[in-house]
Amino acid sequence: MRILNFYNLLCCHLIVRPYLIGLSILFTFLLSIYHPVFAVDGLGKGEVEAYVTTNTRSHELKRVTFKANSLSSRTTIHLDRNTRFQEMDGFGAAVTGSTCYNLLKMDKKSRTQFLRETFDPVAGYGHSYIRIAIGCSDFSLSEYTCCDAEGIENFALQEEELQYVIPVLKEILAINPTIKILGSPWTSPQWMKVDNLTDLNPFHSWTSGHLNPKYYQDYAIYFVRWIEAFQQEGIDIFAITPQNEPLNRRNSASLFMGWLEQRDFIKSALGPQLKKTGLRTKIFAFDHNYNYDNMADQQGYPLHIYEDDAAAQYITGAAYHNYGGNRQELLRVHDRRPDKQLLFTETSIGTWNHGRDFDKRLIEDMEEVGLGTVNNWCAGVMVWNLMLDSDRGPWREGGCKTCYGAVDIDRKDYKTITKNSHYYVISHLSVVVKPGAVRIGSTGMGDEELVYTGFENKDGSIALVLLNKSKEARTISVVDKATRFSYTVPAKSVVSYLWKG
Fold it and tell me: Transmembrane residues, as ranges (predicted)?
């Protein structure tokens, strides 16, 4: 915003200071090449801002501005601000240890340019939500927790946080101070684990095991100390989940936590400890697949926890991944508990799903991950690693060796970046839909190849994000209370629109 205010002031001075004309032209040029996006404040009356990405990469978040014009299509999308759905928290990606390692291998100038383009809410794409690991993940530089020596008094942040994650988060927060951060653990400390909840035998392994009920209070204190340690670094933690993929025993760092265990841990330890210390960090239950890994006794996992009022009082909502099942589960859970929020917290591209086939992935990921989750009540959407290298790493043994990042950086120079489908999915949403926006009614007729949704931002501006799945261009008309326009959407493309309400 400071950049734009300076620009406006400069233009005003042009009336009385003609010698600044050359400087103004130079400044505008520099702004256009370094800062790809502008705030809605820069739009004139009747102007619409659009960002276009095609499956061929002929357009990659290309920004165009045009005047609202007369309607010229039978395919009309009507936006209704009086029909209101969920409030949006934001969109983003996971900033893992591997991501931070790669970012810090970049030279400072290149890293700053990438982070500004990605996170700046005014002069960049405005990514607004980050997921980080509490301890190690399968994309960490080593296996660890923040309390590997037995006894909660031994809690301490480790090298990965201190040397990699926290420095990168501080750079991001300097660009976007309001960004939300979600923390998820992949495993508890090994000394807190048992092999099963009947025999309670110690289980010294990074993979699988259960949390010993004996250590519920210690583990809750572990969460509190982790949140407070980040606070001391000037980093607020917006939300946590008690366990990443609680039904997955096979991850390189993992902990099995069925819904009964998670319910009891939240209501007897985690929730009361957060309340006792005055922390306002939100708790999201579950954090796993739509199909509950096909476990009959775990179907509807968060709904079971909600039935216990003592646990439900501490829970903001539930988080989901899409590695199994159908996103219709989001709608089912919302319909059962509309008072609880939904988040989408992880999906990945990789060799198994043609992750580098941009034609395929842009269309499918925008429909499934971007618009599909939002249209089923998710208030936030996050993808997996923000940045991996050209060898899909660094990764640990037992972790994913076949994943791509939202962007991949070339290990030869740690400067050349390839932006994959997930970067465009998140950017198309975040560039026009700001935290606090409300999804509004959007209805249309005449073309089943179009998928879309509309929003009203807190400043009254209106956003529409649209996917054209067709192999042919489609001319659409958009009708809002105060604005009407037509636009020809390229074949197999995503377009995000923004205009003043």
Answer: 7-34
Q: Which two tokens stand for residue 423?
A: 């970067």
**Residue 146, both tokens:** 């923040």
**Residue 40: inside a domain, yes or no?**
no
For residues 401 and 457, the answer to whether their CB atoms sit within 8 Å is no
User: What are φ and ψ of residue 406, in 5° steps?
Assistant: -60, -35
Phi and psi of 484, rounded to 5°?
Answer: -140, 135
Best CA proximity match to 370, nearest among 127, 94, 91, 152:
91
CB 271 within 8 A of CB 280: no
CB of 95 closer than 8 Å to CB of 168 = yes
Amino acid at 184: S
In the predicted structure, residue 24 carries a pLDDT above the cut 70: no
pLDDT of residue 395: 85
Q: How far apart are CA 319 and CA 345, in angstroms?
A: 6
Q: Are residues 56 and 148 located together in one domain of the fold? A: no
Which sign, positive or negative, has the C-alpha torsion 84, 86, 90, 93?
Answer: negative
Q: What is the DSSP string of 191-223?
A: GGEES-TTT--B---SSS-EE-GGGHHHHHHHH
d(CA 498, CA 282): 31
Is 41 among the domain residues? no
Place of tokens 């976007």: 176
Rounded CA gap, 401 and 398, in Å?
8
Rg (CA), the chain: 23
Q: Which domain holds residue 25?
A: 1-34
Q: What is the largest CA-CA distance in the chain?
A: 84
Residues 81 and 176 occupy one common structural domain: no
Which conformational region is residue 278 in: left (phi greater than 0), alpha (psi within -120 to 50 degrees), or beta?
left
Under the banding of pLDDT at 50, 70 and 90, the label for residue 31 is very low
Q: How many structural domains does the chain have?
A: 3
Of 432, 457, 480, which one is at a domain's C-terminal end? Answer: 432
Q: Residue 21: pLDDT above 50?
A: no
Residue 332 shares a structural domain with residue 428: yes
472 inside domain = yes
Looking at the structure, do residues 414 and 455 belong to the same domain, yes or no? no
Contact (Cβ atoms closer than 8 angstroms) between residue 106 and residue 412: no
CB atoms within 10 A of CB 470: 17
Nearest-CA neighbor of 95 among 25, 165, 11? 165
Greater confidence (298 vs 8) lies with 298
Look at residue 39 and tell me if it is in a domain: no
In this structure, are strands 315-321 and 341-346 parallel, antiparallel, or unpaired? parallel
| pTM of the shown model | 0.91
The CATH number linked to 356 is 3.20.20.80
